[in-house]
Structure formats: structure tokens, C-alpha cells
């Protein structure tokens, strides 16, 4: 039987999206590969470098097969009310609590996303590292600790610019976006930057069964 050359890993990368982030491959040493080959009955006419090429291609094909149907617009949440930049922090806090989110996008009059307001932004504005520290400050300094949340607009506390993803963003683009920030959620936008929905990190992890890797 005529020996067929192994496909070039670089050309395969280009076919499935060169440079895109995905789940990290294991770093196989020559000893790992040789031990694996010895466990197979018979003679294998393949080098350790060929083995790495096969593993690399199989890994990428598996990711494409498993996560091919993942898209931001199918996982995002909708039906919530975003915040406006001129809204005061006390009203914004009530909106987060009422709607059950840890953060909400901030939009302008055209629903273009201009930022996001999270619980962390509130802590930063109140000069506290955690809600426990904030509670202790309030208890220990009831007469001196104060903050005029009813006079402070969202624009002065929100995170901007905000990391967002397009509605048609797939697995690799979503992973890359979540790697770019530590937040629990991010806005999903259309091609003009207008709000479509909110993608929660926990929803993405659950949908992709990534909790098994954590």
C-alpha cells in the first residue's frame, strides 16, 4: 500500500481558523509518545513528530465537532432592562437586584453599548475590596462612612470600554473574549454595536460542559 503523507498542520489551521484560541493541548514529550507507541501491538512506522501532527489535527477536529453549534446568540439572555449612563447608582443597584444580575450593560439612546456596571464597580466606587470589608466599614464607621449614590451617575462608576461579542460569535471567539476580562458576563451586540443580549460566563460553561474541566 502506498504511504500517504501526513497533512500539513499549518494548512489545517488555516482551514479551521488559524490563530484562534481553543482548549490547550497537552504538551507531549518524546518519552510520552514512545511509551504510547510501545503499548500498541505491532510495528508503527511513524516518528514522534508525525505523532504530534496527528494529535494536533485530531484535537482541533474534535473541538470543531463538539463546539460547532455553540453561538453567542443561542446562549445569551434577553428580556432584561439595560442601564443608562445618567441613571444614579442607587437606582442602578435596585435594577441589578430586581433583575437578578451581577452586572448590566449600559447603553445610549440608540441602544449602543457604552459600558457595563457590575458589583465590582460598586465596590471600587465605595473603595472596598469585598462586600465584607464594605459591611465592616459601615458597621465600624456609621457616622463617618457615607456615599451619595443617589447623586452619582452610572457613567462615573461603569467599566468602559467593555468587552463584548457578536451574536454569531462561536466557541473560540467567546473563549477569547472571556479571557480578555474577569467579569461574569458580557454584552452580545450586533454589527453596529447595539445591544442584543447578555452572555453569562456560567451559562457558557454549562452549555459546553466545561465544568468537568474545572
Could you explain the architecture of this structure?
Helix 1 packs parallel to helix 3. This protein has helices at 9-16, 30-38, 48-67, 72-75, 89-99, 119-125, 131-140, 171-179, 201-207; strands spanning 83-84, 103-107, 113-118, 165-166, 185-189, 195-200. Residues 1-22 have low confidence and may be disordered. The protein is α/β, with parallel strands linked by helices. The chain has nine helices and six strands. A hairpin with a 5-residue loop joins strand 5 and strand 6. Helices cover 40% and strands 12% of the residues. The protein folds into two domains: 9-67, no CATH class; 72-213, Roll (CBS-domain), CATH 3.10.580. The longest helix is centred in the first third of the chain and has 20 residues, at 48-67.
- CATH secondary-structure class of the largest domain: Alpha Beta
Q: How many separate helices?
A: 9
> Share of helix among residues?
25-40%
Major sheet size, sense and barrel closure: 3 strands, mixed
* Class computed from helices, strands and strand pairing: alpha/beta
Give me the CATH fold name of the largest domain. CBS-domain
The helix-strand sequence is HHHHEHEEHHEHEEH
Compute the gyration radius: what is it?
A: 24 Å
Distance between the termini: 45 Å
Number of discrete domains: 2
CATH architecture label name of the largest domain: Roll
Mean pLDDT: 85
CATH superfamily of the largest domain: CBS-domain
Tally of DSSP β-strands: 6
Strand content: 5-15%
Low confidence ranges: 1-22
Shape: elongated
Q: Strand arrangement, largest sheet?
A: 1-2-3
